[in-house]
């Protein structure tokens, strides 16, 4: 009789007794690595783009004082176009951010930005790349009233401010504020602008820093110190607004020669 041969059962374990890693687990780990790598790349690109935008296109600032009320209120965030005055000329009526020309901020302590709840190092990093508004630091924000060569004057008795002889109608002034409590009559030097806050009796602007006999040379701001033009209020949502040029400036003629 023929004899049958019994075949031994196949052992699925390797010779060391260890089981192989299931293919499903390997695939999951690979997928997680790919996902994390893509997240890092996207975040890095976003930060680089934000830094480029902050350097060349737009930057955000927060408002530390009431000198521009009610157009801009304390802790408002504004978007500032860096194209002006780099690639576009300044215009009368525009709101501009500029660095302290020298002594305007005095010895007052730096204004504190609104709390975000984030660690200080994180806040500084996000501000550096442009995600959070720039610290007020040594920056100021005012409205351009006079351009180089303009004659800007006011009698200081409730009379309107005049530019090249044309009186301004200023609907943006703080309710009840006079155009200027200080009398002045100046000629804006070349390469400078004459700036004033919308809350005239609470704004240490060009009037405050000019003195008799200086004819605007001390109070005017060098255009080289202008960071950019504020174009919109972006936060809080209830204050969203476009910061255009008031119509009153359209009737102002060019400065007289000489």
Structure write-up:
- The chain has 258 residues and is an alpha+beta fold.
- The protein folds into 2 domains: 24-56; 58-106 and 119-251, Umud Fragment, subunit A (Ribbon).
- 20% of the residues lie in helices and 21% in strands.
- The chain contains 4 helices and 12 strands, in the order αββαβαββββββαβββ.
- The chain has helices spanning 23-56, 83-86, 120-128, 206-209, and strands at 58-62, 77-81, 95-99, 139-146, 151-154, 162-163, 166-167, 184-187, 192-196, 221-222, 226-235, 241-242.
- Strands 1, 2, 3, 4, 9, 10, 11 and 12 form an 8-stranded antiparallel β-sheet that branches. A 4-stranded antiparallel β-sheet has the order 7-6-5-8, with no helix packed on it.
- The chain is elongated.
- Residues 1-18 have low confidence and may be disordered.
How much β-strand is present in the residues?
15-25%
N-to-C series of helices and strands = HEEHEHEEEEEEHEEE
**Radius of gyration, rounded?**
31 Å
Q: What is the number of helical segments per DSSP (H or I, 4+ residues)?
A: 4
Main sheet overview: 8 strands, antiparallel
Give the class from helix and strand content and strand pairing. alpha+beta
Q: For the record, give the distance between the C-alpha atoms at the N and C termini, rounded to a whole number.
A: 132 Å
Shape: elongated
CATH topology (level 3) name of the largest domain: Umud Fragment, subunit A
Q: What would CATH call the homologous superfamily of the largest domain?
A: Umud Fragment, subunit A
Q: Can you tell me the residue ranges where pLDDT is under 50 for at least 5 consecutive residues?
A: 1-18
Task: Return the CATH class of the largest domain.
Answer: Mainly Beta
Q: If you average the pLDDT, what whole number results?
A: 81
Helix content: 10-25%
């Amino acid at each position: 009789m023929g004899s049958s041969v019994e075949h031994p059962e196949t052992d699925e374990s390797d010779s060391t007794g260890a089981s192989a890693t299931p293919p499903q687990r390997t695939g999951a780990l690979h997928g997680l690595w790919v996902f994390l790598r893509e997240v890092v790349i996207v975040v890095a690109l976003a930060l680089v783009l934000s830094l480029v935008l902050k350097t060349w296109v737009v930057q955000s600032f927060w408002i530390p004082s009431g000198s521009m009320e009610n157009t801009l209120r304390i802790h408002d965030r504004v978007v500032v176009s860096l194209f002006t005055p780099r690639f576009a000329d300044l215009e009368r009526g525009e709101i501009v951010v500029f660095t302290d020309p020298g002594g305007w901020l005095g010895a007052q302590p730096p204004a504190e930005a609104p709390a975000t709840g984030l660690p200080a190092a994180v806040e500084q990093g996000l501000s550096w790349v442009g995600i959070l508004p720039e610290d007020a630091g040594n920056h100021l924000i005012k409205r351009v009233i006079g351009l180089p060569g303009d004659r800007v004057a006011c009698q200081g008795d409730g009379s309107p401010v005049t530019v090249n002889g044309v009186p301004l109608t200023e609907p943006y002034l703080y309710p009840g504020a006079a155009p200027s409590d200080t009398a002045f009559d100046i000629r804006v030097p070349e390469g400078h602008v004459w700036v004033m806050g919308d809350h005239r009796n609470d704004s240490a602007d060009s009037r405050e820093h000019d003195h008799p006999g200086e004819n605007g040379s001390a109070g005017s701001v060098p255009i080289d110190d202008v960071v950019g033009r504020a174009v919109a209020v972006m936060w809080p949502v209830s204050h969203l607004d476009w910061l255009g040029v008031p119509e009153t400036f359209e009737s102002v003629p060019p400065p007289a020669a000489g």
